Amino acid sequence: MRSAPPRLACRGGSGGRSGHVYSGAEGGGIGAAPPPPPPPRHEWSLPRALFNPRRCRTAGSSPETSAAPGAAASALRLGSPRPRGPPPAAATMLPLGLLLLLACCGAARGNLSRDESQPTTSDETVVAGGTVVLKCQVEDPDDSSLQWSNPAQQTLYFGEKRALRDNRIQLERSTPNELTISISDVVLSDEGEYTCSIFTMPVRTAKALVTVLGVPQKPQIFGHEQPIDEEKIARLTCRSSGSKPAAQLRWKKGNKELKDEGTEVVEDPNGKTFTVSSRVEFRVTKEDNEAEVTCTVDHESLQNAERSTTQKLQVHYKPTAKIEPHPQYPREGEKLQLQCDGQGNPIPQEFLWEKEGSDAPLQLSSDSVLIFPFLNKSDSGTYVCTATSSMGSVVAKYNLDVSDLYRKVFVFRKDPSDAYVVLRAGLEQPLHNFTLCLRSYTELARPHSLFSYATKAQDNEILLFKPKPGEYRFYVGGKFVTFRVPEGRGDWEHVCASWESATGIAEFWLNGKPWPRKGLQRGYAVGAEAAILLGQEQDAFGGGFDVYNSFSGELADVYLWDTGLSPDKMRAAYLSLRLPPAVLAWKSLSYEVKGDVVVKPRLREALGP
């Protein structure tokens, strides 16, 4: 009896993820009918050196194999009996091994591009606590079903059938060509390679690597718990746990980046996540007190959202102090409080009050206020406050002058002179109206300034200037009007000048008599923050003097109101009668002498018409 002619088979297979196919076990798919037993055959194989198995498909693994074009495939089909009769002449001239190689590779020539029954997947990255979606697709399922299994090779879903009781795993889509599942509330242990399989012959698989990112915890800052003394080194540590891969830490003080001194990465006890620590060091000053230091953790799991911690620094520094009078311009017979305003960290808790020239201290307590119930001239002098904290002591001084300028004058002794008197006014709002009055006594025939009010924006904001005998110039906001008057007879001259913004009217009064009114700077506003001087013209804020415009002689009865005065009040000012409250008032004038100016009693009066 003749045996059946031998069959030749070329074996091969491939598998992988993202289009790369990894090898699988041969056999029918789960639930498929077993194939009919093959007839007895002899299996032929070739050494690997003769051909690449990846270029040769298993016989019967795809419909393309049996239908593959090519001359070699038509001459010799895999799995079919050898043709009877004498071999073709060309075949008898070729070695048997080469014929087998041509037959196998010719049969697979049409399938070199792709395998339509090979499933495809993609690697996924998910943040711990989030949801990952695993999609497996195949073009030709070959009447089989797709299956997902986890890294422990436990089946999760076979087609639309759940295989593992885990409510976190849900079916998203199941068709012959696709199996998509989702895993919610992902934990670190869910990381690994997931396998999508299709039970064709042979079984084909594709891998999907799921990477789980560990979310870093909110960073913590250590080393700020105790106050730091100024000029000492602050050493701070920032720490964040639970990141995977290890997170990055960065520092800021206010809006300024801080360079760290080193970073340490330690694996957490779970063996999967990491704890990251970073250190910074910097020298602190008192300006760093209450400064905000921020540590921020950067990690891909945060998806561009910042996670940071901010702490305020506490810096101990030496105290400062200054003495403030209340009221600002004390008068004889009134109550006065001197406030020693101590600042620092910690705030001064002990205040020592003394008066220069006195042996015994006036007061030592935690009270920073020194009270004068009823001021008199004997209270004049220099008062010293020593404020003390744990960081040291500081001294502040205040010169109290209770002398009354009534019937007294400023004497400017030299000609020319660089001397002047600084006046202090408590203006808080711009002036839209004002009245200026003063009394002068001089022999000068050259130009000289009587009253100069300058701001940083305008040096001649208010200026009363006498360019020559018999002429006055009245400036407002850098503009001036001129008033011509009779030349003096070697006597006191009392001058008042007023201005109102709404009408731009400027008034001028000499010795209680008005001059014709003129227009000046309508709608203007005089600045509040000013340097006010007697005896010099300012060409810059608080300076820029020309000694040949300086005053030499005597000045008295200086007043400035923030309103226009009525004619009756103008005459009262000339006669030194009772006047309304003023911004600058002669009897309670707050002043400071600079240079050769002395306060003396008035020698004679020049009152009346």
Protein model, in words:
This protein is mainly beta and 609 residues long. The protein contains five helices and 40 strands. The strands form eight sheets. Strands 26, 28, 33, 34, 35, 36, 38 and 40 form an eight-stranded antiparallel sheet that branches. Strands 32-31-30-29-37-27-39 form a seven-stranded antiparallel sheet, with no helix packed on it. A six-stranded mixed sheet has the order 1-9-8-3-4-5, with no helix packed on it. The longest helix has 12 residues. The chain is elongated. The protein starts with 62 loop residues before the first helix and ends in an 8-residue tail after the last strand. The relative contact order is 0.08.
Gap between N and C termini? 165 Å
How can the largest sheet be summarized? 8 strands, antiparallel
State the helicity in percent bands: under 10%
Number of helices: 5
Please state the CA-atom Rg, rounded to the nearest Å.
51 Å
In what range is the share of β-strand residues?
35-45%
Count of distinct strands: 40
